[in-house]
């Protein structure tokens, strides 16, 4: 009886045929997939990030304490949301000069240096929402001349100075909701000529004279603030829950009108000039009074000397005997 045996498949195929049957597509794609992940020293992708075609670097949710190294001009979109970047130092993104989108949501960000965004002249979208920002330094966003969308929502901003935003001529969307803003500073919105979406809900608006610029902007741009009808005063007491859109310009007639930017420029220009002119006038008057006093004192000294000369007896001549000598001879 024949023992069972494996079926015979004939002679083994030649080696070239085996090489052709290997899964070459998988082998060739594996290095490319590995190269897309950022590794220390990689040139195409920042450290600890995953890059995708089109220049997107995804560094989200990696507990990063700082902006990752390895940024370069190939990166177009940098996703740094849900990390632990608590501060942005000067030139934090200077190597990513071609960046178009920057997402820094939910980092616990507390401090942004005034030069943190230097070198990002091409940036179009910046998301700083859901952080712990309480103030922004003057000039923070000045380099971002191409910026079109800026979100500062869900922070702790109690005041936003016009100098912090600067002039952003292309900005179209600004999100300021869920902060601690009682009003918007005068001139803040004047440097945003193309703004067509302004989100403001969730702020403790104080309906006083400081709210005049915002109310005027809302009246002039009724369709650019989609939540305008829901913006309510929280103080003072008699105006609590009054909608901001209900205040006409006449409601602020008792308020002193703030100076326009042109008037401020004139004041700043003429102030030093007028100070120097006043100082020069004071010096000239002081010199004149000093000169007059000196002449008056010299005149008095001459008059006193003349009076002393008149009271002094005349000196006898050389050939005239003195009265004492005449009496002795007698």
Could you characterize the architecture of this molecule?
The chain has 330 residues and is of the alpha/beta class. The protein is built from 6 helices and 12 strands. The protein has helices spanning 15-21, 24-36, 162-165, 212-220, 261-311, 323-329, and strands at 50-52, 56-58, 77-79, 87-88, 101-103, 111-112, 125-127, 149-151, 173-175, 197-199, 205-206, 233-235. An 8-stranded mixed beta sheet has the order 1-2-3-5-7-8-9-10, with no helix packed on it. It has a two-stranded parallel sheet with strand order 4-6. A hairpin with a 3-residue loop joins strand 1 and strand 2 (56-58). It is elongated. It starts with 14 loop residues before the first helix and ends with a helix. Residues 299-330 are annotated as: Disordered. Residues 1-28 form the signal peptide. Keywords: Cell membrane, Disulfide bond, Ion channel, Ion transport, Leucine-rich repeat, Membrane, Repeat, Signal, Transmembrane, Transmembrane helix, Transport.
